[in-house]
Specification:
316 residues, mainly alpha, MetI-like fold, 2 domains, two-stranded antiparallel ribbon, globular
Amino acid sequence: MFHFLKLIMRSLLKRSNLFKANSIKKDWFDSFVKGSLGLCALISIITTFSIIFILGKETLLFFEQVPIGDFLFGTKWEPLLEPQSFGVLPLISGTFLIVIGSSLVAIPAGLLTSIYLGEYAGPRTKAIVKPILEILAGIPTVVYGYFALTVITPMLKMIFPSIEVFNALSGSIVVGIMILPMISSLCDDAMSSLPRSLKEGGYAMGATSFEVVWSILVPTALPRIVAAFILAISRAIGETMAVVMAAGATPKMTMNFLESIQTMTSYIVQVSLGDTPAGGVEYQTCFAVGAVLFVMTLVMNIIGRKFYKRFNLEIE
């Protein structure tokens, strides 16, 4: 009997020691994961503030030589030629021209595509169309630029004979194609996340598919749909290579889509090619333009957050 009790006690002690060892291993693993995640978050914060610091430092050095009023309200941009002019409005004008044009292409097409895939398309059609949209999202922007030069611009030339080789219309179309998958996917997610009872209630009241979509689903999901539009517009503002190759590098204030323009990102690429000596005012212009671009993107994000709060939606 005594021998049997001793075996039981020994077994309990072994299990207790094993539990303590597992508990120690688990605590160590949890601490390691928590520390790793915290380190990743810290690296992200440090990187963000480093970018802001460098951008702000070089921009302040630029404004020591160029008055901020001349930069923000000037209508002529020729920092690399003599006499130099540092008015950034032509670059802002070109950027907004691309944004407006690409939005006119992508927003209606993206919304209608998401409605078709979510409400009308059959499983076989979805299996074909959705992968094609995903492929569009994965194509490099340089390829889009070549596509604009070799396909879109010649087609536009047949419709508008006076169009320039590099033009804002071609750049707008190709950027619209680029952001189309993003709008379609986000709008589809917005409407598919709605309660199924909304749709079933509409059909129970005798509404048609068209009425259910445009009178129930779209108005209810409107905040998330608008958020998708804002995100896509932010992508269009920051697009670089496709615009460089399609729209050209001629800074001018124009609303004519048939002319060559230059966006802010296009100019940054031009300065970053290495022909401009580092440290000079010409070099610092790319940081000043980058700061304007940063502020524009920040404003877009703030608008999106305000829109979410207004409709009492949680930002994901």
